[in-house]
């Protein structure tokens, strides 16, 4: 699977897989095969366990999004003129802290 | 293994994640011997994931730095030829910021702010799925109905969202724009996922 010479898996591709696993776990209980696959994956390079722990904790953090829903909604409803597309770079995004400044 | 243990995850979120930025900038300042900062961070976290228990860690920040120093030291020892300057750098590593972080109190608020920033910056579809899941509390199945996309696609959007957070919290919003993220978000990214074959 490694695209470059061979060698070590990049930390980035590890993060990618960790995110995949967290999303899969978020979907519902794993099948036996999946649970085994996860176990095998984790038993490999140690960095995978570090990455998965980090991904899991960020996923847990994102559950607090409910607590900031109003903040988030306000933020998202404002720049309707320039919707964020999947291709767009992020430079034209508004800083949420700028929200304190009323637009007139 | 406590990696996806709920309690370990929460402990990590409260006690370790808030110090990641400090850890990273400390590592960047030192440029430790050609080691990738991301690798060191992952390895350090792996040690925290493997610990039998963490409730006896009284100073998580200091502990984190200590673990990271041990990771670096291990790599230095492993290197066949240890450059002289490495020892000098090791000496610097003896003195990380050991004091409990003064920003500890505002951390939750700060994390929420960053979370809010990150979600706002997500690509549109991913953002929509992510908000339906995390804010509205819909299941992935319900989201697939709502957005008229397959459940697999919803799962991919959630994965993207998580990875977006990982990048955002690791490298900051600014850094995101110019690195490989853009390319990776292009078409085909999800087609070449490398998940184990036994999963469908």
Key terms:
heterodimer, A: 104 residues, mainly alpha, 4 helices, 52% helix, elongated, disordered N terminus, disordered C terminus, B: 200 residues, Arc Repressor Mutant, subunit A, 65% helix
Q: What's the main sheet of chain B like?
A: none
Q: Name the structural class of chain B.
A: mainly alpha
Low-confidence region ranges of chain B = 82-107, 177-200
Task: State the end-to-end distance of chain A.
Answer: 53 Å
Determine the fraction of residues in helical runs of chain A and give it as a percent range: 40-55%
What does this structure look like?
- The complex is a heterodimer of chains A (104) and B (200).
- Chain A is mainly alpha-helical.
- Chain A has one domain.
- Chain A has four helices and no strands.
- In chain A, helix 1 packs across helix 3.
- The longest helix of chain A has 17 residues.
- The relative contact order of chain A is 0.09.
- Chain B is mainly α and 200 residues long.
- Chain B has two domains: 95 residues; 88 residues, Orthogonal Bundle (Arc Repressor Mutant, subunit A), CATH 1.10.10.10.
- Helices cover 65% and strands 0% of the residues of chain B.
- Chain B has ten helices and no strands.
- In chain B, helix 6 packs across helix 9, helix 7 crosses helix 9 and helix 8 packs across helix 9.
- Chain B is elongated, with a radius of gyration of 19 Å.
- The two termini of chain B are 25 Å apart.
- The C terminus of chain B is likely disordered.
- Chains A and B meet through helix 1, helix 2, helix 3 and helix 4 of A and helix 1, helix 3, helix 6, helix 7 and helix 9 of B.
């Amino acid at each position: 699977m490694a695209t470059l010479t061979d060698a070590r898996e990049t930390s980035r591709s590890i993060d990618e897989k960790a995110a995949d696993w967290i999303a899969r776990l978020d979907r519902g209980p794993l099948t036996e095969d999946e649970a085994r696959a996860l176990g095998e994956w984790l038993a490999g390079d140690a960095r995978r366990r570090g990455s998965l722990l980090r991904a899991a904790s960020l996923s847990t953090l994102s559950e607090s999004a409910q607590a900031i829903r109003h903040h988030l909604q306000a933020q998202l409803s404002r720049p309707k003129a320039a919707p964020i597309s999947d291709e767009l770079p992020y430079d034209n995004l508004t800083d949420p802290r700028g929200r304190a400044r009323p637009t007139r | 293994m406590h990696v996806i243990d709920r309690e370990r995850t929460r402990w990590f979120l409260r006690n370790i994640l808030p110090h990641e930025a400090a850890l990273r900038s400390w590592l960047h300042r030192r440029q430790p011997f050609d080691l990738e900062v991301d690798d060191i961070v992952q390895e350090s976290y792996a040690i925290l994931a493997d610990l039998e228990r963490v409730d006896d860690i009284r100073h998580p920040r200091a502990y984190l730095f200590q673990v990271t120093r041990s990771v670096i030291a291990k790599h230095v020892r492993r290197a066949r030829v240890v450059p002289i300057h490495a020892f000098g750098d090791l000496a610097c590593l003896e003195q990380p910021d050991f004091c409990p972080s003064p920003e500890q109190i505002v951390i939750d608020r700060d994390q929420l702010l960053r979370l809010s920033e990150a979600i706002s910056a997500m690509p549109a579809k991913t953002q929509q799925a992510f908000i339906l899941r995390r804010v509205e509390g819909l299941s992935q199945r319900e989201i697939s109905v709502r957005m008229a996309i397959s459940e697999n696609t919803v799962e991919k959007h959630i994965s993207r969202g998580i990875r977006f957070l990982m990048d955002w919290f690791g490298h900051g919003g600014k850094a995101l724009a110019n690195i490989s993220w853009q390319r990776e978000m292009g078409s085909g990214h999800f087609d070449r996922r490398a998940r184990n074959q036994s999963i469908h």
